[in-house]
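Before going further, learn to read the protein records used in this course. The integers have meaning only within a learned vocabulary of local backbone shapes. To see the layout at work, look at the sequence and tokens printed below.
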Amino acid sequence: MQQSGVITQLLQRAADGDLVAENDCYGLLYHDFRRLAAAVLREDWNAHSFHPTELVHQTLLSKMYRRIPRVQSRYQFLSIFRRAAHQIMVDRGRRRITRQRFILSADSRVEMEMPDDNSVALERAFGQLAKFDPQVAAVVRAKLLEGRTWPDTAARLGIPDHKAREMCAWGIQWLRLRVSGS
């Protein structure tokens, strides 16, 4: 029997819950997974920091960690894998764009609009942030409370300008989550 038929049978047994067959499938198809992951990465112009092995592992862990779906062939299973790997890259790109938008929106003067009744919660959250990460708290304090410029904030803390922006964006998001959750 040819290998493709063996893999199809293993996939069908794995879909029925046979864990040994599932492990065998992943072992036999790993080379194909890497090849497909490399193809997905070639299509993404901004994937320079991602390697095929990382994409294979992330796809298998995050998108295909449940049972193997019932498929008719090896080709169909590999198509499902390719679609899942592509979705990982799309999601990664969306997160990167959202993070950049958030950092760029914090460009001139950072403001957090909070109702007055949340000032105690904000003060408590800021105290928690200062204990959790003092440097991030210092960046947020310099931008929010003192109204400093990015270059001044970065120079004052001895960090690069872009790092100050990232830390401030992260700190503001952290504060928003703590205040909204209180």
In short: The mean pLDDT is 78.
